[in-house]
């Protein structure tokens, strides 16, 4: 593989799978138990 | 995990709405729906054709600026109004009910041909062991296996090798659907999705060890930056993301209506969207590594063997299976993956239809499922395992995608944003329990960028399909099964909306009324209340 192709592959994997890892980490930080949902002030700011 | 108090409730009064017993099962089911045949056989070729590695840029922009915001729109409608697509849109506004039925009818058309592709893939899993296609995969598929008629038309000459696998697919699907949301859909996804991922990862690893795999990956990831100046590349990215995420045709509205009241909608949606894209990238690597092997084995360049869709799955891949070391294993993994990816998507498509009739007519789960899925299975088995099945599938697929899903999505976002001004209300609902907050940007994207992107794609498609006959089929054939079918979906949607909601229906649901009152106490006020009541 050429260096530019390898670079693009790494960027693609990092952004997509990295995004998945971040999304899963965010979900894991907020358990689904209704009573344990974070109060609004604890939540991250708007996108 | 908490126990569901809902599943299996009686049918005398409107039974309590089923719920996914855990958020994890909802996410698995939503990923199972989003990851379908398109992830495996469409994404790799779309990416390769539209700039290779450079396609990542429009792809990510489309994912963040159209796919995920639309996914959240579906979640907010389904979860706020707690119903199937017709009921949710009806609760949003009385006049919006046809949007829901339009989505239901789109799902009906997709379901009847989707089962045929799963059946082909199931047969090819076995053919991979016997290598039944010999040295002519293309001739075998069209002539020997499908016994495809030379002219497009409507034949009733049945092909037993297609009919019986299709029958099996329908039996499996109906059994899963009858069992309900928790015992059927959740369990099926909890088994099939991990199985799909494991099989596909093994397939990718095996492909990467084939001679020529690096040439394939080189072709797939080498960026062609000039492509980014081409509007059609951006349209391809938006189009792909839109179809890949299963948004705007009722599935995500229906699934999110089965979520518990306090659920992190946006946090869950992010996992679903990125898992879907993560699988696509994996598919791109696996498919192009295999195509690289095919190119090296036949002494040609990768661009001469690259293909997508049916050509990739049933012509290129069998050729690879015949030539690769341990090819039978590769074939079983590839076609088995198609079967599992297809089944989990078919289940979600059927759920849109079952839930709609269950809500409107107040039927029990079992009655609604049997009354809906058996006729669908019969229509599917009458039309598609025939010598003209592939032509019918080709035209129905092309037209239902463009003039069903795309057109319906465009109308829906315009109605919900500009027509009913419902975005602030839905945004408030999303933010109430979700961890990732939606701001004004979400409303701008859904009400502004998405309609422009969808409108551009739709106009392009109308121009293309009205200036030349799709696939070279006769005008009457595309007229009836393409344009006519797409038009009939709209007429049918209006007619189904005219059927009154009975006293038994879920429109009269004390559980929802209580939920609605609580939402309104929190400031979720319907701007159109007066219009609705009048």
Determine the number of helices of chain A (DSSP H or I, runs of at least 4 residues).
Answer: 1
Number of self-contained structural domains of chain A: 1
Distance between the first and last residues' Cα of chain B? 44 Å
Number of helices of chain B: 22
Q: Portion of residues in helices of chain A?
A: 55-70%
CATH superfamily placement of chain B: Amino acid/polyamine transporter I
Query: Proportion of β residues of chain B?
Result: under 5%
Rg of chain B (C-alpha, Å): 23 Å
CATH class of chain B: Mainly Alpha
Q: Enter the CATH topology name of chain B.
A: Amino acid/polyamine transporter I
- Helices and strands of chain B, in N-to-C order? HHHHHHHHHHHHHHHHHHHHHH
The span between the termini of chain A is 37 Å
Range of helix content of chain B: over 70%
Q: What structural class should be given to the helix and strand makeup of chain A?
A: mainly alpha
Task: Name the chain pair whose interface involves the most residues.
Answer: A-B, 32 and 39 residues
Mean pLDDT of chain A: 79
Please describe what this structure looks like.
The complex is a heterodimer of chains A (47) and B (534). Chain A is mainly alpha-helical and 47 residues long. Chain A has one domain. The termini of chain A are far apart. In chain A, 19% of the residues are buried. The C terminus of chain A is likely disordered. Chain B is mostly helical. Chain B has a single domain, classed as Amino acid/polyamine transporter I. The longest helix of chain B has 49 residues. The N terminus and C terminus of chain B are likely disordered. At the A-B interface, helix 1 of A face helix 9 and helix 12 of B.
